[in-house]
Structure formats: C-alpha cells, structure tokens
Amino acid sequence: MVGYSAADAAALRAFALTVPAGALDAAFAACLGRNNARPPAPSDTVLYARLLDRPLWGTSEWLEALVGTWLDCQQHGSLPTLPATACACLVEAVRAALHADGHPPGNADCDIVVAAAKLAQAVQATLTTASLARLDRRLAAGEGVDPLTGLPTRTQFVHTLERWMNQPERKPVGLLLLHVTWGTGSPQQLSAQRDRLRRQLGDAMSSALRPGDMLCSIADQEWALIMPELRSTGQVQLAARRLIEICERSPEHGIPQLRGAIHAGTACAPEDGDTAYDLEHAARAALLRAIRADIPVVCFHSDMIARMEHELDLERDIARTIAHPPFQVWLQPQIHLGTGRCAGAEALLRWRREDGEWISPPKIIDIAGRLGLMPDLTRWILGQTVRTLSELDAQGIEIPVALNLVAEDLHDEDLPHLVAQALATWRVPAPSLVLEVTEGALISDRDRAGRVIQALRALGCGVSLDDFGTGFSSFAYMRDLPVSELKIDQLFVRDMLRSSRDHAIVATVQALAHGFGMRVVAEGVEDQPTADELQRMGCDLAQGFLYARAMPAADFVPWVKARNAD
Predict the structure, then answer these.
(1) Is 403 helix (H, G, I), strand (E, B) or coil?
(2) Residue 52: which of 19, 80, 78 has the closest Cα?
(3) Phi first, then psi: what are they for 372, rounded to 5°?
(4) Per-residue pLDDT tens for 117-159?
(5) Count of CB atoms within 10 A of residue 565's CB?
(6) How many Å apart are CA 403 and CA 274, to the nearest integer?
(7) Which SMART domains match (predicted)?
(8) What tens digit of pLDDT does each residue of 347-380 get?
(9) How far apart are the C-alpha atoms of 44 and 32, rounded to whole Å?
C-alpha cells in the first residue's frame, strides 16, 4: 500500500497487543453514532467488521476482502461517503482507545495514530480505485460486450434479436431466458466470488451451444440465448434443460452459501411473438411462471401474458395503497369443546377488489414479500387486529384473538416493541393477543426467532405454534420455545375418524401439548362426530366450518353474543 511502511505496520501491531479489541470496537461504534444520521445497513456492518479486523491490517487478503465488501455495499445502495466515514472513524477510534485511561499521549501513541491515518488513507484510495474500475467495466459493457464474461450485453442482445426477427424469410427463432437466484448467503459473499461464478456459468453454457446460437449476459443474474433457424420448437426446451443441467454441475454452484435456484422461460417466433419485444415479453412471462411455481423450465402459452399482467396489476395495487391498504381483517371463531361457547378467534386477511375478485391471503403475502412491503403489511394487520380487540372489549366480548406471523416478522427483533406500542395505543391487555407462528417461519433462523418469541411472551402475549405436525422438528420447538398454544393441522383432523394413523397423531400431540401446559386448538373441524371425538380426547378448542367461516367484525359480534347467550 502506497505510503504505508513496515514501521507503520509494527506500530499497529504494538497497538493490537496493548489495547483490547473491545475498546477499539466501542470507540468506533461511538464515532459512527456521532457521524451517521441513519442506522447502518447490514452490508455496511460487514465492511465495518472487516475494517476492524486488526490481525489482518495491511495484508493483501484484508484489502481484497475490503474491496469485495465495498462493491457489495454499493450494489445494496450504501452511501458513496461510506469509505471516507469508516476510515475517519477508524483513526478516531484508535486515538480514543489509546487515551481511554486519561494519560497524556506519548511518542509511541503519536506513532500509532499516524500509522492508523496512513492505513486509513491507503484503504480509502484502494476502495476509490475499485469503484472507478467497476464504473469503467459498466461503460465498456455499454458498448456491447460484458468485460467480465466476454458475452454480449443486453444492448447487443436486443440488436441481434431484432435483426433475426426482421429477416425476410421469417424463419423460426427461439428465445431462452435463464435466471439464477443467488443463494441465501450470497449477499455476504465477496463480489469477486459471485463474479467468478457468473464467469464460470457463462463459459460452461457457451461450450454447449449450436453453431449460430448467441448467448448474452443481460443482467447480473440473467442470460438470454437466441436460437435462430429452428427445425423444431422442442429444441428450445431441450436447450433450456441442457443449460440448467450444466449450471447445476458447476463446482461453485455446490458451495452452500452460493447455491441458488435456476429457472428458464422459453418462447418461439413467430408463434409466440412477431417482434423482438413481443418474443422477449413472452419468454419473460414463461420465466416468471417458472420462478413463481419453482419449475425448472416453462414454455410460453398464450394465457401467461394475461396471468403476468394480472400479477403486475395486483403488485401495483398493493404497492400504491400499502399506506392505506384496501384489505379487511375478518375473524373466524374458536369454540370451547367443553362448553360450546366461543372462546377465541383467528384474525384472517381478506381483500375483495373493486371488480369483485377475491384475492387469497397467501397471494397477498407473497406479493408483499416480493415487493419488500411485508413489514408495512405486518404493522397494518397488527394495528387492525389490536383495534378490533379493543372494539370487541367495548361490546362486552372478552376473548383472545390470534394473528399469523410470517418468517420475516420473526426475524425482526423490533416486532415486540411494535406489539407493545399497539397494545398501549388501544389499551388492550397483552394476553388478549396471540401470535401464531409456523415451523416454516422458525426454521430459517431459529435463534433470532426464539429471541423474538421470548420477548413476546415477556410482554404477556400468547404464542401459538400453527400447522403443528407437518414438519420434522415440531417436537423440538414444543420443548425449547415458550409456546403457550398448539394448533393441530387440519391435515390430520379432517381424516382422523377414517385414518387410525391420523387419529393416533392427534391423540399423541394433544396429550404431549397438555403435558407441556399448552392449550390445544384443532383446525379444520367440519362435522360433529369429529368434534365429539376431539372433546373425548381432551382437546380444548376447535375451529372450522362446522361452527362458522371467517366473517367481518360487524357480523362476528352478534354471532358471538348469540352463541354465548346463557
């Protein structure tokens, strides 16, 4: 590094031996707090952690890691001033850690601060150079060739597809769009690793093309294959399966942190489109279907355009109205099997569009998740549910209401604060709110979800384990997490009188839950004999069409009063 000498490295090694890492980290955090108006993004914190990795200071390995992390930060929208701020805070943290005991600085302390300043200056210069190099690559890509993969870019792709589509002979042309969804660990990986994977996948696919086919790199995660002069439309589907097979055999695709899903959508001209725009639109509709349904290869069909437009229309509606959603929260009763009284309810999301179309709750949640709007939707549903609890109490109906949480909610450690705030705003006692979680929501980050659940229970809220029995780890969750209620999935309840295995599962689960002091709710109760058997077993509550479907709060109040009338 220019300007950073062996003497500087020795001074910083002395600093590392005499000053605890915790003191430097605390001083760095304090400096960031004074200089940053907003909380750091996750990618920013990775950069900070690498910058504070004292044993590697000044090494080429350390600089490479910093460069890769900074390029990731840029991709995730970090401020351009991040390196300057981080480097300034590093120097200030070194100075503060040296003077923490209040003694006046000596010559050695001054040497250490100067060495830290040189190190920070070198880091800032290196990261600036990396940013400029990325800009140069992007400019070069605009000329038609991706310098990373050597493949034609989107500009060249559009030009070539239009040329083939405008041939006087109108020979059949196939188009294949292939999309790689990076694995869950990819955002934490270095840009260099993802670049290497892109390069490797591009090289592998290029080696399997027919003469005359053209493979293009049209986005960070997407390739397009133009197949002119087709003999059969089946060639495009065969090519798609071949390319996916090649990508999945890639050695780096086996790295767990980078492993992701690969999907392809195909279309053929002139059947699926007369122009380059129409053909790509068709292939993209097929690709969207492949990604949403998690199918490796989907060939275009004419109804896909209407489906895609409908999906986009729903996305626009939700994105446009998320501050004041057009949804409603309905309630489905839960019946105490011993008394027959309504002893609880589940809050369920409902949306009827202006044209009368009903949109299912899973579809709403899926779209909100794709658009990054799930936190806003959760806050809205939480507020509506707690408000409904307040209104029920005013009508003399004192029952708990359950609200479903998704995985993203359980990864938000601010959720308990939002719940507490909503309860305080509407003056609702915490035990009246039950938060339902599923095993699928727990499995991705069990430790963080456990902390959120502990905090919700500490507030006094109930926590229900929903869809119990459909996974493999449910008994461990029952043992380890502070769950107050368990819901037996309707998959077992509906056939329990016809299937001895389902009957045994229901009986075992409810007995275990009672052994842990949990309340048990059976879902999907649709006939009286099933309800009678559940009561005989000792199940506490039942929920299902035997009693009532979900209904608006305005209908729920008179229904409960009539049901619970003495």
Answers:
(1) strand
(2) 19
(3) 75, 25
(4) 888 888 888 888 887 776 556 555 555 677 778 888 888 888 8
(5) 7
(6) 49
(7) EAL, GGDEF
(8) 999 999 888 889 888 888 888 887 788 888 999 9
(9) 11
